[in-house]
Amino acid sequence: MHIALKTEFSFKKCYMPMSRIHEKSVCGIVGIADLNNTYGHIPLMKEAEKHGFKPIFGVRLHVLPNQSQQRVCNTSWIFIAKNNEGLKELYKLVEKAYDNFYYVPKLMYTDVAKISSNVIMIAPCITSCKHDFIAIGQGYENKYVGPKSIAIDNNFFPHSGDRDVYELLAGARKQGSGYSYNFEDCTYDQHILSEEDWLVQYKDEVAIQNAYLVANTCSASIPKSDMVKWSGSHDIMAKCMLGMGKVKDWDDKYQERLNYEIKLIKDKDYVDYFLIVADLINHAKKNMLVGPSRGSSAGSLVCYLLGITEVDPVKHNLIFERFIDVNRFDLPDIDIDFPDKKRDAVVKYLKHKYGKDKVMCLANINRLKAKSAIGEFAKALGVPTYETTAVKDAIIERSSGDARAAMCIADTFNSTDAGKAFIINHPKMALVEHIENHASHAGKHAAGIIVSTLPLCTYGALNNRDDIVMMDKKDAEYIGLLKIDCLGLRTLSILESVAEQLGKPYNFFYKLPLDDANTYKLFNDQRLSGVFQFEGMALQTIVKQMGVNDFNDVSAITALARPGALNSGGTARYIKYSTGVEEPSYYSDAHMDITGDTFGIVVYQEQVMNIAREIGGLSWSDTSTLRRAMSKSMGDEFFGKYKDKFVNGALEKGYKEADAIQLWTDISASGSWSFNKAHAVSYGLVSYWTAWCKANHPMEFAVASLNNASDPGNAVKLLRDLVKNESMKYVPVDADLSEIEWSHKNGILIGGL
User: Fold this and answer.
1) If DSSP states are collapsed to H, E and C, what string results for 513-532?
2) How far is CA 199 from the centre of its chain?
3) Contact indicator for 437, 366 with CB cutoff of 8 Å
4) What's the CA angle centered on 42, arms 39 and 44, to 5 degrees?
5) Distance between CA atoms of 458 and 91, rounded to whole angstroms?
6) 137-156: per-residue pLDDT in tens?
7) Quick check: helix, strand or coil at residue 173?
8) Which of 590, 517, 598 is closest to 564 using CA atoms?
9) Which secondary structure element, helix H or strand E, spans residue 696, and what is its range?
10) How far is Cα 546 from Cα 556, in angstroms, rounded to an integer?
11) CA gap 46, 273 in Å, rounded
12) By mean pLDDT, which of 224-238, 409-423, 632-646, 656-670 is the weakest?
């Protein structure tokens, strides 16, 4: 009975993919106990629900004498939750260990002495402290048998044949200019033992019986979360009506859209979510420039009226169904951009509003993708980096929806010339295919903030040193925790600085007219250094070929530079049509209604949804599935499952078979790798604002950009462009005129002290 296996979440110290954990269930039970973290708990629960076994939740932590300053800890205690109270206590233990962090997380004997009977402790042959069991576990060198010994696997890989994979995964460690190979190389078996293996090696039936006893005693489960409740008025219609002044020409079209959205929001029980996010953003807008929108939330009139976004979806012809539809049962994502220097203030407000113990940043589990996995193994085997270049360039890349998404390395080695040659020269590198997508390490999510109704230690362990809860985005969504994506955007800090120099409030950008001639001249003159999104070659090439005449072009170009439109030929056709070289053609009036503003080209995800629904006759359920596939870039293979349905639906509506197939090609090639229009419009606004600042207030924009450069190298690059292409003059420092940072005086840029 395996009650405390180590998994891939004992980062770089164990090779054990969580997807294989069900193979080790005995009598329908399996437990895990990773070193210093509980990242594997929710993935274990997912696997348990998928394969029908009972999960046991544990953790391995170092325990030392009080006030110990010991840097290296070679042994760890195992703590297993008996029940849900024990699970919370276990999570608090991990939190305490990180509070005691000194080189590694650790507990003191005094911490262990306070543990209740809801937690089972398994100590590595220590008798001087209160305990429930003493381990004679596999891998513990001292085989002292205490009053209650227990069979515990100290596993480093699943099967004996996996040793080579483990040694390469765990072995390579940077040491000066070279590498040392510090994997566990002990005499005992390091794979997961069967009961027969255990009896042969340790000859202790009592230890095995105690493992069964512990397994049958445990009943802990991670609860699903309730939605966070808004504490004020729930009259969302009244709150929307307060924002009607933002719409100059309110008419029946707006009212019908508002009624429709609010009905769906209420039916889905999302009212609290919208009011919580609206409160956060409206509070932030009093102190900073909040981005106009990000992602599909710009398609919501309710979001616009509540102040969550600054994009009128009716004016820009954005659809609500890309954001919420009748078949969506998970909370919609409202992603928000804040100035990068003020993001922490937003998190502090949430902690103040909902409680420090209920608000925490998400973690991010980094996995070994194909190229990084090859790099890891090459280091461990001493293969020179230059010899991996060709095979890395030849890697077969697949989207997440592909059935062979985690088999890119194996297919590269088997089917490409570079891969075959590489394996001939370095045959042991063939082992690398086993660790593709294996967990590598954990970090802090760039944006995700969790807000909970109950203390977060109910659902996972906390690491207060890094301000993270030990779960990733998918885990948090799985148990129903409210996730708010608060992103730090440096461009907003630049725009704030421009507003301050001009003596204007931050929100004046929201009211900026979108017909400024100087701004479009700047685009067409190719003076795009510092213009948000437009510093890359792909967008600049499209601007050069088609020009920018209005805001529609700004938002379209950001989408035309995506892989879908580029690879399908849509971008090239769009340029020909927009410049009058060729005339666009349409398959029907419905096709013209959907793609008329993009010359018949499928540019946006919303167009994919409308074509699938109105031309292909797909159900809302199927259309919603395609929406999720597009948002996760799941690729052509996933889309292909719906081809026959679409073509047959189009035939029933009177389309020719050739036209139906071509329409499918358009939406599958472009749609699965494209922007949604709501995001293109939202970020197009930020691009327009930066271009407006550069065109109309060049000195202020230059100062703001220099003071908010990501690093000194970029600052020098920007300064060179300002001098060479914008004909600006500067002095590095002036004893009389220099301020703390860059400033401008009499038309000259002055370096800061």
Assistant:
1) CCCCHHHHHHHHCCCCCCCC
2) 45
3) no
4) 95
5) 8
6) 444 443 333 557 888 888 99
7) strand
8) 598
9) helix 677-696
10) 11
11) 25
12) 632-646
